[in-house]
Amino acid sequence: WMTGGRFDFDDGGTYCGGWEDGKAHGHGICTGPKGQGEYAGSWSHGFEVAGGYTWPSGNTYQGYWAQGKRHGLGVETKGRWMYRGEWSHGFKGRYGVRQSLSTPARYEGTWSNGLQDGYGVETYGDGGTYQGQWTGGMRHGYGVRQSVPYGMATVIRSPLRTSLAS
């Protein structure tokens, strides 16, 4: 049978929620020592299953977990970047999209051990693209790199000219 309550760890962290056989089980919230991050979601025999983690830096992860690591589908927001896709044993895995929250920069494609690997399309901050093969986070093999069309580049520059002229 399951019980619940609050548990204070020796390191200053706390857990509030369901409990079974001395382990977090069911729904609960765990806060790290000195407020070093918080996980809220479902637990199974001491391990996170599905929920959100927020770090003191403001970085977040919402999604699935296995054996204490991100595993399955999830969304990570880290600084000005967001990754939506699959995770494997704590790393970005198989297929996903990483995009900038402030520029057009993004990568959509396959991943391995947290790095672009296989095939993907990267769009750069200036709108240029690379579509092709990747190995260990680097462009490698066959691919096509396209720069921003000249007309688009002039549109980007024209407001700058106007402000300098006035």
Automatic annotation (TrEMBL):
<keyword id="KW-1133">Transmembrane helix</keyword>
<keyword id="KW-1003">Cell membrane</keyword>
<dbReference type="InterPro" id="IPR003409">
    <property type="entry name" value="MORN"/>
</dbReference>
<dbReference type="GO" id="GO:0030314">
    <property type="term" value="C:junctional membrane complex"/>
</dbReference>
<keyword id="KW-0677">Repeat</keyword>
<keyword id="KW-0472">Membrane</keyword>
<dbReference type="GO" id="GO:0005886">
    <property type="term" value="C:plasma membrane"/>
</dbReference>
<keyword id="KW-0812">Transmembrane</keyword>
<dbReference type="InterPro" id="IPR017191">
    <property type="entry name" value="Junctophilin"/>
</dbReference>
<protein>
    <submittedName>
        <fullName>JPH1 protein</fullName>
    </submittedName>
</protein>
<comment type="similarity">
    <text>Belongs to the junctophilin family.</text>
</comment>
<dbReference type="Pfam" id="PF02493">
    <property type="entry name" value="MORN"/>
</dbReference>
<keyword id="KW-0256">Endoplasmic reticulum</keyword>
<dbReference type="GO" id="GO:0005789">
    <property type="term" value="C:endoplasmic reticulum membrane"/>
</dbReference>
<dbReference type="GO" id="GO:0016529">
    <property type="term" value="C:sarcoplasmic reticulum"/>
</dbReference>
